DNA sequence: GATTCTATTGTTAGATG
DNA sequence: ACATCTAACAATAGAAT
């Protein structure tokens, strides 16, 4: 399996872009949660998207 | 060089915790910025900490 | 205490069910 | 459309400077 290097630019293909959004959102949420835990601090991430809008806080209010 | 697997918990050592905060904040900011670019959406990350407080938006206002 | 190094762990693009 | 797989790629813990 060979993956092409992805350049940092808007993904024009609709399904690829949505798939990337879903995967990366999940990864980001995890990392924000980890930072909150490791450092004992409050964090919040906001992502607006056509698919949905997400606002999440850590630690969970 | 052997690195122990880190468990997901508050890092009690002050300098380790601060170092982790700095490194992970940088990584998170990069990823938020990438998500904004890849998907053409607005994102925002907020991190409160004793060291500083950070709020950043993408794309840059 | 900031910066750099790198072994290791973690994330994810594209493929496949 | 959604879940899972995994090679390729990226982030980072701990050490060194």
From TrEMBL, chains A, B:
**Can you give the residue ranges of the MADS-box domain?**
1-57
Which keywords annotate this record?
DNA-binding, Nucleus, Transcription, Transcription regulation
Where does the UniProt annotation locate this protein? Answer: Nucleus
The record's listing under InterPro entries reads: MADS-box/MEF2_TF (IPR050142), TF_MADSbox (IPR002100), TF_MADSbox_sf (IPR036879)
Q: Does the UniProt entry include the keyword Zinc-finger?
A: no
Superkingdom: Eukaryota
Task: List, in alphabetical order, the Gene Ontology terms for molecular function in this entry.
Answer: DNA binding; protein dimerization activity
**SUPFAM superfamilies recorded for this chain?**
SRF-like
UniProt cross-references to Pfam families, sorted A to Z: SRF-TF (PF00319)
> An example Gene Ontology cellular component term from the record?
nucleus
**Among its keywords, does the record have Nucleotide-binding?**
no
Q: What is this protein called?
A: MADS-box domain-containing protein
Q: Identify the taxonomic lineage of the organism of origin.
A: Eukaryota, Viridiplantae, Streptophyta, Embryophyta, Tracheophyta
